[in-house]
Amino acid sequence: MDKFLKNALLFSALALPVWQVQADTVGISAQDTYALLQQSDDVLFIDVRDPVEIMFIGFTDAVDINIPYLIVDRNDWDEEKQRFRLHRNPNFVEEVKAALAQKGLSEDATIITMCRSGSERGLPSAEFLQNNGFENARYVIHGFQGSSVKEGEQRGLRVKNGWQNEGLSWGSKPNTDKIYRTDK
């Protein structure tokens, strides 16, 4: 009986799309995000990078909107990290609510966030949203650009996993209707 039950559970799990099997986790792969977007309009897909970063790295039009979770403060240099400091967007929750409303979605809709690599803004933004009442917030595990290679000729380059490296659609220029702007 135990062997039968295990096999039945395994078969059931394999029959479901991967994003459903992983529904109890915060992370979702780029491929599974893309598949989910093809299957459902009830998802809000947010690029949470600073728009300046998008200008230099690229953008996918698959996202609904760019709402930065952390914004680069060009007046505050971090000597230790040798970069400008990042501060949480004080309007992040309100801007996500507005994007949901614009798309006709409720706060219990699936929200997927994506940053460059998934770690510094992707996971924290999804957790922040969950802590603020958006229980179905997720993030793209390896983000837009993916992980850097640790060894070999391409050492240090982000050529492994992530949206760009998995062959999903992207371009070098942002969509001006979706990019975060303070001049509108």
UniProtKB/TrEMBL annotation:
Tagged with keyword Signal: yes
SUPFAM superfamilies, per the entry: Rhodanese/Cell cycle control phosphatase (SSF52821)
PROSITE patterns linked: RHODANESE_3
Ranges of residues in domain Rhodanese: 39-146
Keywords carried by this UniProt record: Signal
Leader sequence residues: 1-23
Pfam families named among the record's database cross-references: Rhodanese (PF00581)
InterPro entries xref list: Rhodanese-like_dom (IPR001763), Rhodanese-like_dom_sf (IPR036873)
UniProt entry tagged with the keyword Secreted: no
Protein name per the record: Sulfurtransferase
Organism: Marinomonas vulgaris
Lineage: Bacteria, Pseudomonadati, Pseudomonadota, Gammaproteobacteria, Oceanospirillales
